[in-house]
Amino acid sequence: MVKPLTHKVWRDMGRYRAQFIAVIVTVFLGVAIFAATYDSYENLVTSYETTFLDYRFANLTVAGGDTEAMATAAVGTAGVEAAYSRTVVDVPLQVGETKLLGRAVGLPAAGQPPVNQVKVIEGTYLDPARPDGVLVEQHMADHFGLSPGDQLEVLAGTSWRQIEVLGVISSPEYIWPARSRQEVITTPDDFGVVFATETLARELAGVQKPNEVVLYYQDGKPDAALSAELGSTARGLGATQVYTRDEQPSNAALSEDIRGFREMAFLFPVLFIVAAAMASYVMISRFVYSQRPHIGGMLANGFTRGQVLRHYLAYGWISGLLGALPGAVLGVFLAGVISRLYTGMLSVPVTVIEFRWSTLAVGVLIGVVATLAAALAPALVASRIRPAEAMRGETPAGRGRPSIAERLLPPLRRLPIRWRMAFRGIERSPRRTVYTMLGVVLSLVLVLVSWGMIDTVQHLLNLQFVQISREDAVVYFATPVGETQVTDLEAVPGVAAAEPDLEVPVSLAAGGEVYDTTLIALEAATQMHRFRSVDGSWTQLPEEGLLLGRAIGPALGVERGDVVSVTVSSLGLTLEGTVVGFVDEPLGTFVYSSRGYAAAQLGRSLPATSALVRYAEGADAAAVRDAITRLTDVAAFEDSDALYNVMNHYMVLFYAFVGVMLVFGAAMAFALIFNTMTVNIAERSREVATMLAMGTRRRTVSRLITAENLMVAVAAIPIGLVVGYYLSAYFMASFSSDMFTFSLYVRPVTFVFAGLAIVVVALISGWPGLRALRRLHIPTVVKERSS
Amino acid sequence: MISLEKVRKTYGEGVTEVHALRDVDLEVPTGEMIVILGPSGSGKTTLLNLVGAIDDVSSGSIRVGDVDLSSLNADERVEYRRTQVGFVFQFFNLIPTLTASENVELVAELTRGDGAQRAHTALEQVGLVGRFDHFPSQLSGGEQQRVAIARALAKEPPILLCDEPTGELDFETGRLILGLLRRLNRENRQTMLLVTHNAAIGEIADRVVRLRSGEIIEDRHIEVPVDAEALTW
């Protein structure tokens, strides 16, 4: 580029710095979000993959059936590098006064297993010479402050047995401490994992042989065909549960979580970059319009059209570069911080932070290309200007016509002229109006996607913990009990009611498909659990038949009226049940039956594994908890409020993130509306000056311009709300699985607030332009050939 | 009566200081048509802007009737522009999204009564019957200037300030516009200040004031103003 033209670019940018800063900041935010979220996603994926590789995380887990035969078959199968048979048992644990439903996982006493190794964080690995020594999983150790040398108790049969903490470990299986795919959310007071010698684990389980096989494929690489083949073999050998690494509860939950980063790495930056491109287009178009005489002069003095084209393209790519480069650098830096925070919070054994030139380059490229593309149309217009015409200083006359609103609603033609002006002003530059509206739409999408997430999660928590689960607490028994022990709980002071509940792992099968879940058998007239149909209506637990979680329907290909077989491996029984309906629950996918129906189908009386308890009015929850946990049969006590609070605790970071997104959304709306408004005002400065010279008050002119801009913003709000709603629904649906059901819920008041927020942003973003109006020098402007 | 006493107007400071008007004294009786002549930078537009209260004097005073313009606050200046003066600009300065009648009506609405009726009357006065609903882009330059004049007239102001009203027009159209202004001045008895660099135009006025470098170098009464149709340049 010719040097004086370079000076001109920089000086123009300095003169219109507010508008350029708006573009630069929007590009900066978009690119920073892209780089931060994309690299965070990549870092987390790499951290997990490295963890899985380093600790030989199982590619396939098979529970139940003939585990020895399964291990033998697997080792002989091409592609399987290692198999390890072990015992896993859910047993009550007691730490101090707290009883919890724990899990003991068997490990070789002499050294790490070939599959699912653990990372010793504190203390030592297991010791064959100390058979009662255990390794405590990090989440549990952190919560109870356990360290090597501490004691805890485990229920062995009917008596409590003391065990000693040898070390604190982290495990790829429990990075997220999920009890099962159906119970992903647990509290540390209710669930904890210890790793014991295989011998101790078998003693606790009361078994002679291992009950689980974990398989590691060649180099740890997933292989769907191999998993299918081995899964089929396992089912043939009586396995009750088979799941791949992707389906493993902890990993599945984490994958859901980091998928959010991937979605955000695309959706949110796109919104910002498009907004920046539009703001850039509006601004550069205005430049070309107002600089027509200069352009004519340049062409007349021998500048080529190519030089003019490149000159105006420079306004685009320079502002893009100024925003994208620091944005990409900051984003890459933030990705490291976010990744470290995230893996630290979850205690992921390995954290991999990588610097990716590609992310930096793509980030910069996105910003530059977007603004360059935005500059292209006005730059082409500039390069095609006819010099003689342009040098006369005449800008093309604006075409006038009644507004669409006036044509559609003829009574509007009787409005005072100044209001008709406002209507027609909207159509004066249709492209600019469309871009302003698009800016509002994009901002609302960002706001609704963010706010919609909060509303949805709050709604789902309320649905799950208030409307569906009506109990105040769940009391887990050490061993299955009869209904008498359950009703005995009602004698505990502060307990108003208690109902028996059987929860057992089951395998549902139909048409060759198998789905592993939990059967929950409750009293048909239960007052502790409500059942929500797929259409949102409330239904009763039927006396006869099964109610299935909605995800089971497509998984097994079954519909209402079909029969499914339900294998209860712990009882060694299988029942045939008729599907009488599907329920829609936010957390987990269960199968429900009345206790009577389950007992009849199983041909035996039904025990209770837990009791659902409701407190008496005004009861002291802590006292009730203390009284119940002191009972001998009780293994654990799960307070519903505690679980709800855990969920809310996890949401804090999420709320912070959404808060930041709301601020960014406002900034984006501000940038675009500010640019279009200032251009709008600049373009009609001569008209404004003329009106002022004629005796129109400045506040009247300000109101007119504000009204015009508000009309554009307000017209775009319904569109933005609709588009935002559907995009939010798509975004939330992408998080749904059989573990979580995220059906978008947006409170009506959110729509109102989002719309009002845009109105406020539109008013604020117009303020600098209106201030400029106050500084307008009437004598100068009325003499100008054009604005 | 418009009365300027020792009016001084300075722009900028230090090395960039420009004296647009230097101690100008001038009295314009009600109903008089004055043509203010002078080359670029002589201060003629500045003088017009000061009388129109869209700019402030640096020193001296301007009185219009009993009102001292320099004593008016912002709101009073707006009120003064609303009721006392009408502007006609070189580049017409019409609002492109409004029709001819709406452009006029917009200003008429600022004062009193039926804006539409007064807009129509003003447009009839300037001979634009049948073009009421045309937008500026559908009108010729001369027609646009007629709309601008009608706009200035619609408020029925006692003072009409015209800044190079023929500057953008061809010779024939320019003469027609000047004839129109002269006729309106006589019919309405409005005081009219017309700024131009075209010396020939001075012959249609009651009086010619010539400025150079911010000072009045000639103040001449014309005994028998010529008809605009007879002008040539």
Q: What fraction, in percent, of the residue positions of chain B are helical?
A: 25-40%
Helical stretch count of chain A? 23
Number of helices of chain B: 6
Low-confidence spans of chain A: none
The chain pair forming the largest interface, with residue counts per chain, is: A-B, 31 and 39 residues
Shape descriptor of chain B reads: globular
What is the helix/strand order of chain B? EEEHEEHEHHHEHEEE
End-to-end CA span of chain A? 28 Å
Proportion in β-strands of chain B: 25-35%
Strand content of chain A: 15-25%
The number of strands of chain B is 10
How far the N terminus sits from the C terminus of chain B, by CA atoms, comes to: 31 Å
What is the topology, as strand order, of the major beta sheet of chain A? 3-4-9-6-8-7
> From the helix content, strand content and strand pairing of chain B, which structural class follows?
alpha/beta
Question: What do these coordinates show?
Answer:
Chain A is α+β, with helices and mostly antiparallel strands and about 775 residues long. Chain A has 23 helices and 22 strands. Chain A has four domains: about 1-55 and about 260-395, no CATH class; about 90-205, no CATH class; about 410-470 and about 645-785, no CATH class; about 470-645, no CATH class. In chain A, helix 2 packs antiparallel against helix 10. Chain B is of the alpha/beta class and about 230 residues long. Chain B has a single domain (about 1-95, about 155-230), classed as P-loop containing nucleotide triphosphate hydrolases (Rossmann fold), CATH 3.40.50. Chain B has helices at about 45-50, 75-85, 100-110, 115-125, 140-155, 170-190, and strands at about 1-10, 20-30, 35, 60-65, 65-70, 85-90, 160-165, 190-195, 205-210, 215-220. A six-stranded mixed β-sheet of chain B has the order 6-7-8-3-9-10. A four-stranded antiparallel β-sheet of chain B has the order 2-1-4-5, with helices on one face. In chain B, a hairpin with a 2-residue loop joins strand 4 and strand 5 (about 65-70). The radius of gyration of chain B is 17 Å and the shape is globular. Chain B starts with a strand and ends in a 12-residue tail after the last strand. The relative contact order of chain B is 0.19. Chains A and B meet through helix 13, helix 20 and helix 23 of A and helix 1, helix 2 and helix 3 of B.
